[in-house]
Predict the structure.
Amino acid sequence: MIKIRFISADGSETHEVEAAEGLALLEVAQADGQPLEGTCEGQMACSTCHVIVAAEDFARLPPAREEEEDMLDLAAGATRTSRLACQILLTSALDGLTVRMPPEHRDMQRR
Ligand code: FES
């Protein structure tokens, strides 16, 4: 099992979960009730699965493909450690990964 730590957009809440290797981070986040829409379900047609990876963990992720980089350009509030959660597949190399929710996701849920 891979440990993942989710931090709320304002940093006030932290939640740790354990997830099976091979799952997409988006699936794990949604199962945990994190506010990620993931509208296109991993088809790279939205950026509503955008998460901000902790700076110290970012280098552990495989590099983003060009399509992911293009979608991240459209993500509101993107930072240099932003990634799309649907494109992150959990491996043992990611044990202990910490990601934060961008503030925009909360607003999208209120629509
Ligand atoms: S769910 Fe749409 S790009 Fe990730």
Observations:
- Residues 105-111 have pLDDT under 50 and may be disordered.
- The chain is about 20% helix and 20% strand.
